[in-house]
Amino acid sequence: MTARTVLTFARLTLQEAARRRVLRSLAVLTVLLLALSAWGFSRISSEFGGLTSGEARLAAAMVLNLVMFGLSLIAALGTAFLAGPTLAGEAESGIVLAVLARPVRRSAVLLGKWLGLVAFGGGFVVVAGLAQFLIVRAASGYWPPQPAAGLALLAAQTAVLLTLGLLLSTAVSPMASGVVAVGLFGATWIAGVVGTLGEALGNDDVARVGTVSRILLPSDGLWRGAMNAFQDPTLLGRFSEAFEGHPFLSSASPTPAYLLWVGLWIVLALALAAVSFRRRDL
Fold it and tell me: Angle 176-117-133 (CA atoms, 0-180°, nearest 5)?
C-alpha cells in the first residue's frame, strides 16, 4: 500500500462526495441554520444593548453552543450517510470489484476513502463554523475565546462519526450504517446530558453513565470540549451555578489523555473496518 494510492482514493472520494445530493441538502440546512442564528443573535443584541454585561455574554455563549450543536448534527448526518454509500454502496453495486481487480489492497481503498471523508467533514466544519463566528460577531459583537481549538474538536468529532460509519458499512447496508451511526451519536449525547445532571446532583452512578458513554464513543466528550472553547472563560467564575447540568455549557476541556484515547479509538475502529472489509465477500 503506497501513499500515492491512498491519496488517489482520497481525491476520488472527495470528488464523489461533492457530486452527491446529500451535499446540496447539507448546504441548504446550513444556510437555514446560519440565517436563523443571525436573527437570534440580533435579538440578543437588541435586548441587552450590546455584550457589556455578564448576562449578555452568558446568553451569547449558550446560543452559540446551541447553534454549533446544530452544525455538528448536520455534519454527523452528512458524514454518516456519505460513509455508508461510499463503501457499502460500491460493494453492493460491484463498482469496487473493478478497482480491486487491479493490484490494489482493500486496506488502501478503505484508508483512502476514510482520508477523503475526513477532509470533506473537517472542511465543512471549519467553513460553516467560521461563517457562524462572523455572523455572531456582526450581529452581537461576541467572539469565542478559542475558535481554532473548538473547530478542531468538532472536526475530530466528525472524524469519529465517519470512522464509525465506515466500520458499520463493512457489515451492514449503507442505509442501516447511516441510521445506526446517527442513532449512536444521539444516544451518546443524551447519555452525556444525563451524566452531567448526575454530576450536578452528586449522584456518582448517574454521572458514570456519561463517563462510560464518552469512552465507548468519544463524540460527546469532544463536543463538550468544543463548547468549553466557544464560551467566555470568565463565565465559569461569575455564573458557576448556571453550568450545573446545563446541556449547552461545559465546565472543562478534554484532557491530553482523553485526546490520546480519541486517536487510539479511531485507529482501532479503522483496523476493525479493514479486517471486516478484507473478509467481506464482494
Answer: 105
Looking at the chain, the whole-number percentage of residues with pLDDT higher than 70 is 80
Whether residue 281 is predicted with pLDDT greater than 70 in this model: the reply is no
| Residue closest to 89 by CA, chosen among 22, 26, 149 | 22
Secondary structure (DSSP) of 112-135: HHHHHHHHHHHHHHHHHHHHHHHH
Q: For the chain, give the mean pLDDT.
A: 81
The C-alpha cell 472524524 sits at 159
Minimal CA–CA distance to 9: which of 78, 100, 125? 100
- List C-alpha distances in Å: 152 to 113, 129, 187: 20, 10, 23
**Calpha distance 228→211 (Å, rounded):** 17
pTM of the model: 0.86
Q: Over the stretch 217-266, which tens digit does the pLDDT of each residue have?
A: 999 999 999 998 998 777 666 555 555 667 777 877 899 999 999 999 99
**Rounded Cα distance, 128 and 156, in Å:** 15
Give Cβ neighbours of residue 251 (< 8 Å, ≥ 6 apart): 228, 236, 243
CA separation for the pair 231, 62 (Å, rounded): 8
* pLDDT, tens digit, 9 for 90 and up, residues 157-214: 999 998 998 888 888 777 788 888 888 998 999 998 888 888 878 888 888 998 999 9
How long, in residues, is the chain? 282
Q: Chain-centre distance of CA 162, in angstroms?
A: 9
Residues 6+ apart with CB under 8 A from 107: 1, 274, 277, 278
Q: In whole angstroms, what is the distance from residue 258 CA to residue 217 CA? A: 12
Cell 465546565 appears where?
A: 251
- CB 179 within 8 Å of CB 172: no
52: three-class secondary structure by DSSP? coil
Cell 448517574 identifies what position? Answer: 206
